[in-house]
Amino acid sequence: MKNPPSNVELVYYENGTPTTFKEVIPLVMQKKLTPQMFVDKDGNHKILVVVKAEVKTENISIAYEGIPEKLKKLGYSFGNSKSDTIVLITQGGPFPKLFTDEVKAIFKDNGGIDENKYFIINSHQAQTIEPQMMLEKEISFEQAKMLGIKTSEMLNELVSYFKSENKKVFIVGISYGCFAGQEYISKFGNIADGYLLMVGRLDIAEDVWRAYSEGIDAAFEEDAVSTKVEQKAENLMMINSHKIAAAYGYKRYSELLKNTDLSNLIYYHALKDSNVGKLTTEEIDFLKTKGANVVAFDDVHTAWRKHLKEALELLLAK
Fold first, then answer.
1. Which of 8, 69, 115, 167 is the most exposed place for a label (fewest CB within 10 A)?
2. How far lies 4's CA from each of 47, 208, 237, 310, in Å?
3. Predicted TM-score (pTM) of this structure
4. Which residues of the chain have pLDDT under 50?
5. Third-level CATH fold of 69-316
């Protein structure tokens, strides 16, 4: 349930003029400004610089010959469309924007993925299809749950289609996308050929998801176990982002997946994760009893990028 920051104290325009997070975030969401976030060694957001966005019409679609028009609109693709292997990404957030060039850069530069060998798709989520849901007014927790259902259904449509094309399909879920991946398996079964889920939780702390369900900021202390609940988020996007995250976070996936074989799942978790907390002994034991490969790294939530290459190599070797 990695979310964008609810506030950053040091915010500047590219010419050095100071501004505020509250002032620029609507312009970022409208793609009029491009954010450049600077973090410290622990992954904490420290300085935000916003620059004027390039005028660019982005035609987001899946470039695959013969794909139905409805499915064509469910993601952004790159790589070799003739490949026998499909890598379906479900991104972190939840954000109102589907990332395109950013995801491509991360998976190429950090992940070392071979575009000639694989066809890679960043799949739309409900709130990236309808971004106005996050930006116009506060949604209810029940509305957030409906968005979560829609996201998993769209993912299932893509998996089902490419399996019908006799493709090998792998799902990669990062942070919020990890929860989306878990939801997909719990609702539709273990249909994909393999899964890489990173920096998520099976059973996140109740006080965290309850706070999120009301649009309240919450996180974990340095031990990645103790929780801290703060105040309601300052801007509308963050309030709704919290609620959408909680729509998966309230579920107990160790219960929902108790009858599911997870031997084709690789689960990476951070031991210093202040965003979602580290996996408990019970969560780790559950995953292992289901056959999952559980990998811990002694770092913060955002450090998953450092481990993406090794994780993808494990996944794609299946």
1. 69
2. 13, 16, 9, 26
3. 0.83
4. 1-2, 53-57
5. Rossmann fold (3.40.50)
